[in-house]
Amino acid sequence: MDPGRADDGRDDYVNFVERHQHRLLRAAYLICGNRHQAEDLLQDALLKLALRWPTVRDGDPAAYVRAILYRDTISWWRRRRREWLSAYPPERETGDGDGALRLSVRAALDRLPPRQRAVVVLRYFEDLTEAATAEVLGVTVGTVKSQCHDALRRLRQVAPDLGVGGPEDGRSAGMEVGR
């Protein structure tokens, strides 16, 4: 950095992006279900963050980006109907045995309405609290609870093979059972 130039936060921003981009991309992919769209959403969110960096950097920039991702995804869903060109994703099952489970979870998430899907991803894949999920989505904690309850009930109907509500400790496929 040029010693004569004032610190405008660019280095902090670049460091933040390098540290968080993979996790944020994963969240974007889980919420929208399309890698290319997830990359576009993340790029737009990071651009919005860059424009607000001086005011956001001292708070929680990752939460700010997640809020942008989820709100932009919901806006995209509202503007456009989803069209699927094929019934099955082009992914191949890996030799690690998790491929079938991964595809089942993805297919089950695809069958949830947008808000329920957002709540499930934030709560169980991003591991946010109910309050944090409510803040990201701009809804009340009660809405998060009811959407989560409805989503888990729907997942039990559309994907019984996931074992949501299994006998072990009440957890299966990384999701808790709503009681």
Query: Strand portion, in percent?
Result: under 5%
* CA-atom Rg in angstroms: 18 Å
Average pLDDT rating: 78
Main beta sheet: 2 strands, antiparallel
**Count of DSSP H/I helices:** 7
Give the strand tally: 2
Order of helices and strands: HHHHHHHEE
Shape, principal axes of CA atoms:
globular
Helix-strand makeup class = mainly alpha
Low-pLDDT windows of residues:
166-179
Biggest β-sheet: strands ordered side by side in the sheet: 1-2
Distance between the termini: 55 Å
Query: Helix proportion of residues, in percent?
Result: 55-70%
Describe this structure as you would to a colleague.
The protein has seven helices and two strands, in the order αααααααββ. Helices cover 64% and strands 2% of the residues. Strands 1-2 form a two-stranded antiparallel ribbon. Residues 166-179 have low confidence and may be disordered. The chain has helices spanning 10-32, 35-56, 61-79, 99-110, 114-125, 130-137, 141-158, and strands at residues 171-172, 175-176. The longest helix has 23 residues, at 10-32. With 179 residues, it is mainly α. 25% of the residues are buried.
Q: Could you outline the blueprint of secondary structure elements for this entry?
A:
Elements: H1 10-32, H2 35-56, H3 61-79, H4 99-110, H5 114-125, H6 130-137, H7 141-158, E1 171-172, E2 175-176
Antiparallel strand pairs: 1-2
Helix pairs in contact: 1-2, 1-3, 2-3, 5-7, 6-7
